[in-house]
Design brief:
Elements: H1 6-16, E1 21-25, E2 29-30, H2 70-73, H3 76-84, E3 87-90, E4 97-102, H4 105-114, E5 119-122, E6 127-132, E7 138-142, E8 145-148, E9 154-155, E10 165-166, H5 169-174, H6 205-221, H7 226-241, H8 249-261, H9 266-280
Parallel strand pairs: 6-10
Antiparallel strand pairs: 1-2, 1-3, 3-9, 4-6, 4-8, 5-6, 7-8
Helix pairs in contact: 6-7, 6-8, 7-9
């Protein structure tokens, strides 16, 4: 009786459940391409950007080699790799999943405060939060946070705990990059004079605080397109209060804090604020 390597037994069980798998060698890295596929000489999956398979029977092209076919998984080139493998990886996107990879305690704390609860798997340094639904993979969407879904692999670390939930918009929004600030040629801006003998009406505490509170509420209640919602809110605040100098660092901090609570990074907040100022010519 042939005894299968433990990683292969795990891989076959996952494949039977429809999860495409691939072996990982020491260092949690995929096996390198064979000489026929080196430097994409085979023409398949150039730079691992396309999912079309080449004809190589070996374990080549990292995530793109992941399969649910037991005949492939137990073929001689693959069994040789399984004997050297230290663990199993899977292609989340092909399984209709997204893994939010939280690499440290701070990232885990952020997820607990920001993301909807879902299935959680413990990792060496943090956690994987797994959602039902696929999206584009992105690294470093915020400190210590990677998104692994299509065209990526994630280590299989067990079934985890908790019920898996649908991929939320707040996770999808993490991959949306704010456009870089637009810097048109300098031009003069006509600043309207304040009323009441030069006293700016926006300096009335009730008026200004109410405006900032409403802006915080708009950001907090946004359920999708978070980047766009933050930008539009910043634009509205600056269009009302940006020319009279009544906004203080405390007001801006309140807006940035509300945006970061929805998953925005400080960089994204700063870029959105700069874009809004540029649009208004401030």
């Amino acid at each position: 009786m042939i005894t299968l390597p433990e990683p292969l037994r795990t891989a076959l069980a996952l494949a039977a459940d429809g999860v495409p798998v691939v072996p990982l060698r020491a260092g949690k890295a995929p096996f390198g391409n064979c000489h026929r596929c080196a430097n994409n000489a085979c023409g398949g999956r150039p730079n691992m950007k396309s999912a079309g398979p080449c004809r190589c029977p070996g374990v080549c092209h990292a995530w793109a080699a992941a399969t649910t076919d037991p005949a492939v998984l137990t073929s001689p080139p693959w069994t040789a790799a399984w004997r050297r493998a230290v663990t199993v990886a899977y292609h989340p996107g092909a399984a209709g999943l997204t893994v939010v990879d939280l690499d440290n305690a701070a990232a885990v704390d952020w997820a607990g405060e920001t993301l909807p609860a879902t299935r959680t798997v413990q990792t060496t340094r943090g956690e994987h939060w797994i959602y039902r639904g696929a999206m584009t993979s992105h690294n470093a969407v915020r400190p210590g946070v990677d998104i692994k879904s299509t065209m990526a692999y994630a280590r299989w670390l067990g079934t985890g705990t908790g019920a898996m939930t649908d991929l939320p918009d707040v996770v999808r929004a993490l991959s949306v990059k704010e456009p870089p600030p637009v810097r048109p040629a300098p031009r003069s801006v006509s600043v309207p004079a304040g009323s009441g003998g030069g006293q700016c009406p926006h300096r009335t505490p009730a008026f200004l605080d109410r405006g900032i509170a409403m802006a915080e509420q708009r950001i907090t209640e946004a359920r999708s397109a978070i980047h766009a919602a933050v930008y539009r809110t910043f634009l509205a605040v600056l269009s009302t209060h940006g020319r009279c100098g009544c906004l203080t660092d405390a007001h801006i901090t309140r807006l940035f804090t509300a945006a970061q609570a929805k998953g925005e990074s400080v960089r994204h907040c700063t870029d959105a604020w700069t874009n809004a100022r540029t649009t208004l010519g401030l």
